[in-house]
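As the work plan foresaw, the team has encoded backbone shapes as discrete tokens. One protein thus recorded appears below exactly as we store it.

:::
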Amino acid sequence: MPELTLTGLRVTLEVARRGSFTAAAEALGYTQSAVSRQIIATEAAVGAPLFERHARGVRPTPSGEALLRHARHMIAHVEAAGLEIAGLRDRIAGRLAVGAYPTAAAALVPRAIARLRTAHPALTVSLWEAGSPAQLRRLRAGRIEVAVAAIGEGLPDYDFTGLRVEVVRTGRGLGVAVGEDHPLASREEVHVHDLAREAWIVGAGDDGDPQFGAWPTLQSPRVAHEARGWQTRLGLVAAGLGVSVLPGLAADSVPRGVKWLRVEDPAYVLKRETVIVTDADASPAALTMLQALRDETTAFAA
């Protein structure tokens, strides 16, 4: 008697998800005939038809719906077992504490942590959001192993003696956040001249933290509000109370009601950079995190 297989269940789930054998075959990298064979074998194992045809493809029969409910749980349990076993084999295990300044903590570092979790499920990573000076103090005290910090104009000249420092570039420079109802929101890029009469929402915070004023090359910009945190600043932007400078590093993390725009400004030269800092003799876990951050910045640039 035919038996259910994991491949058959995965194919059944994909056909149900896509609504056609052809689309499921493309998603799985199979031929359509291979998908058909898996469905026929699975139907033989359960003793009932799983799909019925309609004008735009296929849909599950009542028997198919019943199998799908159980198949989702079975596949999830099998994948969980695989992750657990991989974790037992993985030499990168334990705990890793990572620090990041707020802009990097908005999207870049969480994505790198997710990447790391997939590759090394036995490693638990905690994220501590703080300004660069506080991070470096914690790094030297051994309370974090990786610091994602900001350096450049307007920031302290940090002492990196004995530390490993690597500059990362995401391919996105400084931009501007506008409300979705703003007249400029229909564009993907604006010229600096378009920003001359805007009301600006600027940052206010501790010395050494990377803060952002109005666009750097504007003469006598009008400041409407000051706010310490990005969440507040972008909330003011979403409410239509002004626009705000926002690094491209955080472009993918803007809340609903806000759009990030590139700015064309021949007079502006990038004067701040993001660096990843570790001990000179960083642990294998820290080096793995460093690679995940490299991979994620490459993805951002693409």
